């Protein structure tokens, strides 16, 4: 007979600039939740799926929602210049709003 989990993880953790699709009320061990990023952001570090582990902790790894906007960084004279990076968070210049 297979061991059926009866204990559950707390709700999935918040993901900055993202949300859980079809948020459930109970997440048993070995169940999954799927994140989606808000408009203007894209998923990085996975496909958005996270798992409730046997230890009742979420296995979220390096999942993040990154900005789609082009980075701009201050030039040494205080002017803005294009850094050449496609995404601002790739350059470490996360923008808010």
Automatic annotation (TrEMBL):
InterPro entries: Sushi/SCR/CCP_sf (IPR035976), Sushi_SCR_CCP_dom (IPR000436). Disulfide bonds join 9-52. Keywords: Disulfide bond, Sushi. Pfam families: Sushi. The keyword Acyltransferase does not apply. Residues 7-67 form the Sushi domain. This is Sushi domain-containing protein. The lineage of its organism: Eukaryota, Metazoa, Chordata, Craniata, Vertebrata.
